Write the structure tokens for this entry.
Amino acid sequence: MAGQLNEAQKVFRGAIAADMRDARAFWASLSEDEQIQCAMVIFHKLRKHARDGGSYRWMLYDLFGWGDGSYGRIQCSGGLEVHNRLIEERQREVM
């Protein structure tokens, strides 16, 4: 059983690494202006999320407009950590 779990973890980590390599290659294929335009939209949406709050799912599905397939991919790239830090900071400001 432990061997199967370790193998599944290796496959999962490999899939995450491949997905991130693809994302980085896509980013590198964009011009500087395209990268800036993407970053502008992302930061604008993250600022809205920091101000308005909401769940991780709300951020992905409603704010960004992505589907179910985004949950794990964004989480594995640090999205859940960013969300949590934004919400923690918002909660400190409210207190």
